[in-house]
Amino acid sequence: MTTSDVLILCAAGMLVSAYLMVGQRALFTAIRLYGVQSLLLAIVAATIAVSEGRHELFVMAAITLVLKAILIPWFLMRMIDRIGIHREIEPFLNVPASLLVCLGLTVVGYRVSTGFPEGARGVSHHLVGVALSMLLIGLFLMVTRKKAITQILALLTVENAVFLVAVGVTSGMPLVVELGISFDVILAVLILGILVHRIVDRFESMDVSRLSKLKG
Amino acid sequence: MVGGLLLTFVLCMATAGRFLGGGVPAAFGDALRVDGLSALVLVLCGFVGLLSGTYGVGYLRRNEARGLVAPRMRRKFYGLIPAYVFAMLLVSVSNNLGIMWIAVELTTLASVFLITFHDRDTSLEAAWKFLMLGSLGLAFALLGTVLLFASGQGHLGEGMSALHWTRFMQAAPSLHPFTLRLGVVFALIGYGTKAGLAPMHTWKPDAYREAPSPAVVLMAVGMLNGALYCILRIHLISKAALGPGFSSGLLLTLGLLSVLVATPFILIQWNLKRLLAYSSIEHVGIMALGVGLGAKAGVFGALLHMTYHSLAKPMALVSAGTLAQLHSSSDFKRIGGGTFGRAPIASAIFVLSAVIITGSPPFGIFFSEMTILRAGFSGPHVTVTAVFLAALIVLFCGFAYQVGHLVIGPPRDPAEGVSEPESFDVGMGTTILAAILAVVSAFYLPGPLMALIHAATRVVWGGA
């Protein structure tokens, strides 16, 4: 397998995991899917690091692996374990219709990605296409789901998509910046976790569509 | 804490002074750099931080006296406000798009805890909406930053300095147009969310209602200026690389939309702090519109507006905060009509501030709005300016109606509107001081501040 094969395979895997997340109701599985997605992202980063000899990308890959593939999923799982809510309720749009919409979003994502300059790698086109599709799917998940955890996962999917663009089309952002960004992401997830806890305590539900007192 | 904030403010002034003296203060290999725009935003943020901290002391003491705030919460408050101010100042001096992003994210994280400070059901809702929308906005801003960086592959160099704004400006002609355009759109939407431009404004009314008033001052003026600073930086890159039309058009659309969206909600508003939130959406819209008009006078008007707004808005917020605190709620229903009989000083200051922030002559905001309007009518966007003017007039009437009802309207029910008597303390002192500053600044802006506004206009408009 050549480098570009690995990259395309991983990118495709990430897209598939996003699709599975859309079709998934069990929260545990959705979190695992996010873990797998992050793992694939780490592999993409590591592969590029090896093939182009850019060692600072290894740091990025390691951070992604530890934070996003292990730490955040573990934290989220522990949280739903404590809360004791395991399934997503009926989303605003049912699963087959959601999947069809996501298909459309993927087409849009790929269409936009054709405008990018062809980089040194021919595969960057695929990486950007996948990333933009994931971005749109994440947004879609965020507006159609009701559970707080699923919304966090949607946000994290968007975040993953942004990172895929970062490793796919640039020669890597400066390391300090990437470290700061990773730090902020984990902080945001922790705070969201605290909020979910308090929401469940107060409303005895994780259904954020009940948060509807403030209007006008 | 107040001492520290005072020191910070003095340092901000000193930095701006060094800039006016002809230098360009920079640190960490140009990652932090102060030009005209930075200096202006820096001074305004420092001022607002000091004001909010001082008012915060009085606010907290009053709440403590009523047993609403535990000592643990006080420590949290005194930790969060300086953290917020630090992040805000970091935004205003950053020359590096990455650091700018990180600093904006820090303000978001600090404000989440400030919004949930009073720990009510509704504050959880507001915090959740704020963090979800804010994080999404920041993800967009990050994608925008990544795409901007990608558009300059091979022209920006390596390492930390590759994300420097100054480097972008040098490399502007050779940036890849498609990637850049996509990046500019994402970044503007992202930072627009933080600034509260419509249609990404929905977190603002909720957050303003729930957060304690000193924190609202920071959000309404500090974060607004900071986010606008980011928007202007992105706008300048776009202008240098793609020509003036692209991002100006975007800013013009978003600005007009914000003014239009705010109008109906001010007319039907049921809560005092939400009313001010919509006013702040309107004002950020005015600033974006001024920049988007694409005329030097428009840019100058927008920056003048930013200055006057920063001086006048805290006055409105702290007096409204005092009213709300005296009545233990900011809902009109709970406050009832006729506050003037119960809290004459806070009411009088609030009325005066309402007169100022709706842009009545002879106060500052009137002049900045006139400058923008004149730039609009003499430029190519006459229709937009006409719609804008109409919205301003409706807004003025709506505000007058709401405030009149609140302050001199009859109490609808004798049982309503129970309040504590006003008392002179640190909070009240700050309110009066803010009022004096806002009024004086309408007639006399200190020379150095005016020089800063001109310097900032030169940065945003270009040329010498």
Structure description:
- The complex is a heterodimer of chains A (216) and B (464).
- Chain A is an all-alpha fold.
- Chain A has one domain.
- Chain A has helices spanning 3-22, 27-52, 56-83, 95-113, 124-144, 148-169, 175-203.
- In chain A, helix 1 (3-22) runs parallel beside helix 5 (124-144), helix 4 (95-113) runs antiparallel to helix 5 and helix 5 runs antiparallel to helix 6.
- The radius of gyration of chain A is 18 Å and the shape is globular.
- Chain A starts with a helix and ends in a 13-residue tail after the last helix.
- The mean pLDDT of chain A is 83.
- Chain B has 464 residues and is mainly α.
- Chain B has one domain (2-461).
- In chain B, 77% of the residues lie in helices and 1% in strands.
- Chain B has helices at residues 2-20, 36-65, 71-93, 97-115, 121-151, 165-171, 177-195, 203-210, 213-242, 245-267, 272-292, 296-326, 332-335, 339-342, 344-357, 364-377, 382-408, 426-443, 447-461; strands at residues 26-27, 32-33.
- Chain B has a two-stranded antiparallel sheet with strand order 1-2.
- In chain B, strand 1 (26-27) and strand 2 form a beta hairpin.
- Chain B is globular and about 65 Å long.
- The model of chain B has no long low-confidence stretch (mean pLDDT 85).
- At the A-B interface, helix 5, helix 6 and helix 7 of A face helix 4, helix 5, helix 7 and helix 8 of B.
Low-confidence stretches of chain B: none
- Total beta strands of chain B: 2
Largest sheet of chain A: none
User: What's the SSE pattern of chain A?
Assistant: HHHHHHH
